[in-house]
Design goal:
Length: about 180
């Protein structure tokens, strides 16, 4: 895929992190806004492999401006003892991320849950820092997930921390289709 002219004169690095709900949701809101302006967007979802996420259907409706790809399994990844399959999928996903970012073909790329993948040791901090340093000047790069590394926070142009104050999950509310999935 190759687009004639990048839409952004200067792409920034944004980080959405913290323990509160809304990191992926915020990045998807940005994608919706960008698609409305004709930007070309790709989202890579690390550590996610479920087909029930509503954003997957939404992306199909916003094609060719927005595409979403999941590069994980539909199972919980153990932080202390990640399965080798999860490590291999994260590695493959990061190789794909590097290819997409460095291609210059996209105005906006979201690496959803990449901060978690680094925190869990599935992706190296140095590789992510190298990707940030070498991204094309016109590409906006968004990194989501809990526990963003301090060095990534330092490199970013914008950092937002979602902080949980109250959440209905704590009262037993299950995930709701169209809201949490």
């Amino acid at each position: 895929m190759s687009y004639a002219t990048p839409k952004l004169a200067r792409g920034r690095v944004q980080v959405y992190t913290g323990n509160g709900k809304g990191k992926t949701t915020a990045s998807l809101g940005l994608c919706l806004r960008a698609a409305g302006h004709g930007l070309h967007i790709h989202v890579l979802q690390f550590m996610k492999g479920s087909t029930v996420y509503g954003e997957l259907e939404g992306a199909r409706k916003l094609a060719p401006y927005l595409s979403i790809e999941q590069v994980g399994r539909d199972t919980f990844v153990s932080r202390d003892n990640p399965d080798p399959v999860d490590a291999a999928m994260a590695r493959s996903g990061f190789d794909k991320a590097r290819q997409l970012v460095l291609s210059g073909d996209y105005d906006l790329i979201v690496l959803d849950e990449i901060n978690c993948a680094v925190d869990y040791g599935l992706i190296s901090l140095e590789e992510l820092k190298d990707l940030i340093r070498n991204k094309p000047a016109h590409t906006e790069l968004v990194l989501t997930g809990r526990n963003a590394h301090p060095e990534i926070i330092e490199m970013a142009d914008l950092v937002t921390e979602m902080r949980e104050i109250k959440h209905y999950f704590n009262a037993g509310q299950a995930s709701r289709e169209g809201i949490e999935s």
